[in-house]
Amino acid sequence: MPASPSSSDPEAEMARLAAEIEHHNQLYYNDAEPEITDAEYDVLFRQLEKLEADYPLFANPNSPTRRVGAAPIEGFEQIRHPLPMLSIDDLFEISEDERDAVEAKTGERPPKEKEVLDFYKRLQKGLGTDRVPVTIEPKIDGVAVSLVYRQGQLDYAATRGDGTTGDVITSNVRTIKTIPMVFPDGVSAPDVIEIRGEIFMPNEAFAKMNEERDEAGLPTFANPRNSTAGTLKLLDPREVAKRPLDFIAHGVGLVEGGQINTVTEFHALLDQLGIRKNEPLWLAESAEEVLTAVRELDIARHQLAYGTDGAVIKVINRDDQTALGATSRAPRWAAAFKYPPEQKETLLQDITVQVGRTGKLTPVAELEPVLVSGTTVRRATLHNESFINEREIAIGDTVLIQKAGEIIPEVIRVVAKAENHPGTPFSLETYLNGACPVCAGPIERRETITGPKADPRTVVTHFCVNFECPAQTSSRMRQFVSRKALDIEGIGTIVAEKLVERGLVKTPLDLFSIPEATLADLNLGTDESPRMLGEKNAAKIVQTRERAAREMPLARWTFAMGIPQVGESASRELSRLHRNFGEIAQSDILAELRTLKTGDRKEANPLLAPYEIASEVGPAAAASALDFFQSEAGHHVLLRLAELGIDPQSDNYAPKPAEAAADGSSPLAGKTFVITGTLSAPRDDIAARILAAGGKVTGSVSKNTSYLLAGEGGGSKLDKAEKLGVTVIGEEDLDRMLGE
Fold this sequence. Notes:
Blueprint: H1 10-30, H2 38-54, E1 78-80, E2 89-91, H3 96-106, H4 114-127, E3 134-140, E4 143-150, E5 153-159, E6 165-167, H5 170-173, E7 192-200, H6 203-215, H7 224-232, H8 237-240, E8 246-256, H9 263-273, E9 282-284, H10 287-300, E10 308-315, H11 318-324, E11 334-338, E12 343-355, E13 360-372, E14 375-381, H12 385-390, E15 398-404, E16 408-416, H13 428-431, E17 443-450, E18 457-464, H14 470-480, H15 493-501, H16 516-520, H17 535-551, H18 554-560, H19 568-577, H20 581-585, H21 588-593, H22 619-630, H23 632-644, H24 657-663, E19 672-676, H25 683-692, E20 696-698, E21 707-710, H26 715-724, E22 727-729, H27 731-737
Parallel strand pairs: 2-11, 19-20, 19-21, 21-22
Antiparallel strand pairs: 1-6, 3-9, 3-10, 4-5, 4-7, 7-8, 10-11, 12-13, 12-15, 13-14, 13-18, 15-16, 17-18
Helix pairs in contact: 1-2, 4-10, 14-15, 18-19, 22-23
């Protein structure tokens, strides 16, 4: 009998899981901003696979379990792979309950890697032999690419894409020094050979790049894999060249005018070509040898210079690979055993509290040092008061920790309670005696309802509400000067911290009143080993801060304030609805918006209906913006701006659509645009023109889209616009609308 699905309607549950997986595919492959861990994704994927196996009549032929990767990215030329560039099936450790069940049935307790043994048995059965030679190598946590060489020269490079069609990224790949453009003289290689592998960022190079970006006041990246994916999507190879990308080959695709019969022959050719191959490598001819290699690799991989998350097992002989064949998404001759996150027990010695940019107080576990996944872990985040109480964590407990994504330490659960456990829920407010640990200012308790409507939960977080808190000032400064905010150059973490430490700034706005000579003399080192900021860097800060004061529009200034719930898109929308900070602070629109309840439609409100307010500004963002400007901190901002003579104005203000149409001041008021394809200018520049004329720009086509502005290679958005009957225009049409 099939296992019961989590829903009484298996078809509906399969549709729900498929939609959720597609959502995470988009975030992982296209946006490089995953919301969940690989392990959590694997659980969802396996749940869907199991339901499809149990209820085949309900299986969708377009299920994500039958697809590879993600859709091609707009902005790049697409190319069809000469051979499908498939994904690879995953194998996992089985649980203790599963091991118990097998032991009870057979009398023998299977190893945790039972799925590896099952995979090898399938190879033996498929090839009709007991000894199947295979290789075992690291599964690199990077971005899969295909390099096609013709007559010894790189013809093109492409991403995996959807497995059939990928994005041509040749210009970006040419910046990677470890990838040869031409084969060495004297090497006998096939006329055409497709070399497949992973582009990645080495761990140390990634850390150094993040440090340098931080120093320069630029945003840092979450992890090497996401950074690599984002880098390869850049349209400017000059920017790609600044990133520390590397390449390792792990497979071969199309071969013409030559022959490669085995994996070992392919590796020998790579050595001659000067292309780095995947190492360390194990050869095995039995299930026992495979298990030994998988376990040895689990130890060795922590010494590698790049991230790994598994062991890839591949049949050596290419004729055997052909005989075994493939499913619609993965070869039958290869699989990847996914290592579970390494977990260790250690003592929770203390709880400290960090203060973030918005004043959020984050409890941190101070741990007895323990080696996890190759590095010593001393600290791990505890997130918030609710997290601590849900897991009943207390100082003195023995806790289980692991590294999320093999990088970020986290506390999983309590293993053993402390002898002197208080027995009462943890209260951050009581623990801190009601004061911020940095500035001793007042703290505020906030509750947020999260989770599904059927099972909501309350999350308790705390904030320091002192706008002059030094900890906030340092981190606020980073957003204040960032490229998407005021774009003030030369201020990274160290400079920001030293400005606060030396007493030169109490709030980011104080940056505008520091003399250039004082900036030049700022000591970034210690009194014993001074290191001055210098005249050149000081001049750069002064020049760009003056430009910000004169030229930066209201939206950029609003984003720079770091108001909770008000990001870049919401800042643009506030600027569209208001002329300046004074109007935002006294806004009737925001006051009405904050009263809306879940499910209320803005269009049904007589006051809000004429404005066509974008979804980026809802009740939470409206309340946060009003609370900020009506607080002591907000009053300080408005007063300080007046003292400095800075009065940011909206550059995309659009009055009510009816008023705009009457006076012609906002020719695109009430119109929503989507931009796609290659145009004569960067999309951000074109979007800025639309916003300045009162229009709105969104990322996806819907029935509410007024126009799709399409350049060459319009892609899926063009197809969707045509299906929905959305008007498609070109740049000349936009120019006419703008009266240009």
